[in-house]
Amino acid sequence: MKPLSRRTAEPESAAFPTRPYDLLKEFTIALVVVALLTAGLAALFSSPDDKPVTLAAWSAAAPGDFTATAVAELGATSMTAQYGPPYNDTPGAGQKIGPLGLQRAAGVRIPVDTAEDFVLRPLRQAPEPAEVTAALAAWSAASTDRQQTWTAAYADALGKAPNGDPTQVAPGDYGPVPALAGRLLTLAQAGGLDGQLLAQGHFYQTDYTKPVLFLADGTYLAGLADGQHLSGDQWGMMNETGNYPGQAWLWLYTFWYQIDPFKSSTNADALIWALMAVLSLGLVLVPFIPGVRSVPRWTKVYRLIWRDHYRGQR
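^ thats the sequence. predicted structure below, dont judge the formating
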């Protein structure tokens, strides 16, 4: 009798059933199915691709608002001009927590002179008619008090004009302000102002700080936000454009902006930031806080979670 082999002979590959398999065909089918699913789900659930808001679009859609904002920038009375750090060193401006001034502690890191950056420099850098060149010279030669008198008078006249139309402003002593604001409006409507505010002397022009600040000082952008339910009193941080859901996990942060004393406080951002820091620290320290760490043991919620284990013990 022959001894048994310690190793079993491996069967030949021909002993197994085979069938043809077209890898390229399977890959193509999978690619098409995934592409159709991606396109279909994106069409159903993705956010709309709204066009970006530009200075050109703003000046064309609301020339009165653009002109009024330009005058405010020129007179240093806009929100950006009065914001304080990190844009300027306006006295008394900035968010605080008690006596601690958070903005002032950070300092002016992105200097913005609204009159120079948003109005005067773009006008100087663009080819100007003779009357605009003369208006620039008159503005530079005037004292600060005189400049503020001109801008305040013209801003008041714009507010009284029908629909804020610059062409229907009553005659008055406005100095060179109407010529400067009118030329800036023309420059913006032609699309030139967007490029000038983006030009920061770098190879890649991706810093939109100044155009966004200029836009935010007017009412046009805020009106668009209201229409899309994106403003602060509409829980805007939790929404995307239209009726699409956004970052729902931000509800705890945005909640505080809807109630007093935060919603009426000029330091709401700093106060809510500090409150969220305390709450986050409390969450991290739950295992070390006496009483709080014992809540699961007192409520016996663990027995509900591990009910199969405890049922087996019984």
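The mean pLDDT is 87.
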